[in-house]
Specification:
The protein is of the alpha+beta class and 43 residues long. Helices cover 19% and strands 40% of the residues. The two termini are 25 Å apart.
């Protein structure tokens, strides 16, 4: 996966895939135990 752009603001990070790979942004943010238990664990 190749990135054509990256962004960083406060505690989040994002990158955009190159257009040849359909573009689109991917966003990342820090996860703590509370976020994991309430939003990830039961999925």
């Amino acid at each position: 996966m190749l990135a054509s752009e990256t962004r960083q603001k406060d505690n989040s990070f994002a990158f955009k895939r190159i257009d040849e790979e359909d573009g689109g942004f991917y966003y990342f943010m820090p996860m703590n135990l509370n976020i994991y238990e309430n939003k990830v664990k039961n999925i």
